[in-house]
Amino acid sequence: MRIGFVGIGSIGYPMARQLLRHGFEVRAYDRRQEAIGKIGADGAAAARSVAEAAEGADVLITSLPGPPEMEAVAGDIIANLPEGATWIDMTTNDVHVVQAQGEKAAARGRHMLEGTVSCGVKRAYEGKLTIFVGGEEDVFDRHRAVFDAMAETVIRVGPLGHATVAKLITNMLAFVHQVAFAEGMMLGARSGLELEPLWRAINASYGGSFVSENDGPRLLGGEFNETFALRLVCKDSRLTAALAQETGTPMPVATLVEQTYERARLHYGDDATCHNVMRLIEEAVGQELRADLEDGAP
């Protein structure tokens, strides 16, 4: 199967590499030549444009920062992807943008799936992502091997657009957990608790989460160099807030967390990692949260 891949970024690169490792033929395009060179060293062919990545492909995958970037390449994809081929968009997107492009693709005889991604960059390198899929079930079934090459868990959540909603919900929960984890650990520290046993206690309780278990060692180690930028957190939060308003869903907790991340973005910069949100509470009380967590194991 020939796969075109557009967007060789922090999450796109390890996904494309997993496809190569599973024997897929990949032709990659990114605006940055260094990104194309990096995946080229792993065996991918280089495309000089989005159109060239789409030409002759059985599947075209996009992994882009957001709706504007996805819409900017949609026309070239639909025009150049062969009839009967499939476009899989893995961008964290706007549900209406995904559905509109799906209608345009269908009108031209192309299929479209969305495959939104969760569990982070580290698991992308391990091929252990979770992917939510939206689209027609028969189209999904024909492309199951593509998703399985990149992910440990693949869940079809419904028709086109539903995977975007699922991703926005899971991201919102992760953002809430990050802020709540930092606040809880600071409360423990200010109350005199040792942080390592407190962290283990949290993960062995109802209060534990994927965030506390997996991000805890990085946060408490002062490692604020992960690759999910605050500008992307704020973009996803705005998309979630817009969907909540559209559906009439009250989200007071998510709104407060969105404001917290926006403060972090303004303070630390667009490209600072999302984990910097913990530094807001550290700086507010003048105390760092640091602990040696052996092997990152609870």
Task: Describe the 3D structure.
By secondary structure, the protein is of the alpha/beta class. The protein folds into two domains: 159 residues, NAD(P)-binding Rossmann-like Domain (Rossmann fold, 3-Layer(aba) Sandwich), CATH 3.40.50.720; 132 residues, N-(1-d-carboxylethyl)-l-norvaline Dehydrogenase, domain 2 (Orthogonal Bundle), CATH 1.10.1040.10. The protein is 55% helix and 14% strand. It is built from 14 helices and eight strands. An eight-stranded mixed sheet has the order 3-2-1-4-5-6-7-8, with helices on both faces. α9 crosses α11, α9 crosses α12 and α9 packs parallel to α14. It starts with a strand and ends in a 13-residue tail after the last helix. The model has no long low-confidence stretch (mean pLDDT 95).
Structural descriptors:
single chain; 298 residues; alpha/beta; Rossmann fold; N-(1-d-carboxylethyl)-l-norvaline Dehydrogenase, domain 2; 2 domains; 55% helix
Major sheet size, sense and barrel closure:
8 strands, mixed
- Amount of beta strand: 5-15%
- For the record, the CATH architecture of the largest domain stands as 3-Layer(aba) Sandwich
Order of helices and strands: EHEHEHEHEHEHEHHEHHHHHH
Any idea of the CATH class of the largest domain?
Alpha Beta
Q: Could you give me the name of the CATH homologous superfamily of the largest domain?
A: NAD(P)-binding Rossmann-like Domain
Spatially, the strands of the biggest sheet line up as: 3-2-1-4-5-6-7-8
- Indicate the structural class: alpha/beta
Radius of gyration: 20 Å
Share of residues in helices? 40-55%
The span between the termini is 41 Å
Helix tally equals 14
State the assembly state of the protein chains: single chain
Low-confidence stretches: none
Give the overall shape. Answer: globular
- The total tally of domains equals 2
